[in-house]
Amino acid sequence: MTAPTPRSLSFDTAAAQYAAARPGYPPALLDAVEELAGRPLRGARAVDVGAGTGIATRLLHERGARVTAVEPGPGMAAELHRSLPSVPMVRGDGNRLPLATGSVDLLTYAQSWHWTDPDLSVPEARRVLRPGGALALWWNVSDLSTPWVAGQDDRLREYLGADARVHGRPGDATSRNLSLLSDDAFAKRLLPWSRRVPVDTHLANLATHSAFLVLGAAGEEPTRRFLDEERGHLATVFPDGVVEERYVVELAVLTA
């Protein structure tokens, strides 16, 4: 079994902050999943892999899916169990799913497929899906067509390095992360949406990205200075202290 990378497990150090600050997903996302998968979520045997603190798991559960969460990180798993104690959860990851062959109607990866090794996770997905089942992958991507988001992205890249990814560009996540798959076999959707949050929540959301978390203790003070400076930039755009975060959810669905 390929072990989870230190970067993929870095979220454990900020599990409660992740649960509190990370964005959810719009109702249109699960509508699109149902349409592209060709079946309702209610009653479906669903497994949410790389479930984190359960942001997507909760939405699947509320739609009536019989959902099980799969999560490798102990800190994230503990936060998920605390907030969703009635939802079954197992420790594991997408490279070697702790699931029976042909047992799943819907296999979901919310913000997590890119942490897998496709040489392992693709055969595993095909193994556990029932005939007619579906694999659904999605990512929240900040909308760089919004000027303030693009400006923030420039500052993030200057601080973290040109290759660091906190924001993305709509369309990039699916093309990048499906590059080793048969891309044409996936049905895809781009779903714009937004949320309004206090500036403190927005900054806490930024700080939960792995590009910051892997800096560890040595990066705490520089990161604090960066976020303080970012607060000043945001105050010029959102003087009332409420940030309108703009996203595009990238969705890709493959039916078995």
Radius of gyration: 18 Å
Strands of the widest sheet, in order across it, are: 3-2-1-4-5-7-6
What name does the CATH topology of the domain at 10-143 and 168-194 and 247-255 carry?
Answer: Rossmann fold
Instruction: Sum up the overall morphology in one term.
Output: globular
User: What structural class do you assign from the helix and strand content?
Assistant: alpha/beta
In helices, the fraction of residues equals: 25-40%
Instruction: Summarize the main sheet.
Output: 7 strands, mixed
User: What is the mean predicted local confidence, pLDDT?
Assistant: 90
Count the strands? Answer: 7
Query: CATH superfamily membership of the domain at 10-143 and 168-194 and 247-255, which one?
Result: Vaccinia Virus protein VP39
Question: How do the helices and strands follow one another from N- to C-terminus?
Answer: HHEHEHEEHEHHEHHHE
Please report which band the strand proportion falls in: under 5%, 5-15%, 15-25%, 25-35%, 35-45% or over 45%: 15-25%
Give the termini distance in whole angstroms: 24 Å
CATH class of the domain at 10-143 and 168-194 and 247-255: Alpha Beta
Named at the architecture level, the CATH assignment of the domain at 10-143 and 168-194 and 247-255 is 3-Layer(aba) Sandwich
Unreliable sequence segments: none
The number of helices is: 10
Description:
There is one protein chain. This protein has helices at 15-21, 27-37, 55-62, 74-83, 118-128, 147-160, 172-177, 199-207, 210-213, 220-237; strands at 45-49, 66-71, 89-91, 104-110, 129-142, 187-198, 242-255. By secondary structure, it is of the alpha/beta class. It has a domain at 10-143 and 168-194 and 247-255: Vaccinia Virus protein VP39 (Rossmann fold, 3-Layer(aba) Sandwich), CATH 3.40.50.150. The chain has a 7-stranded mixed sheet.
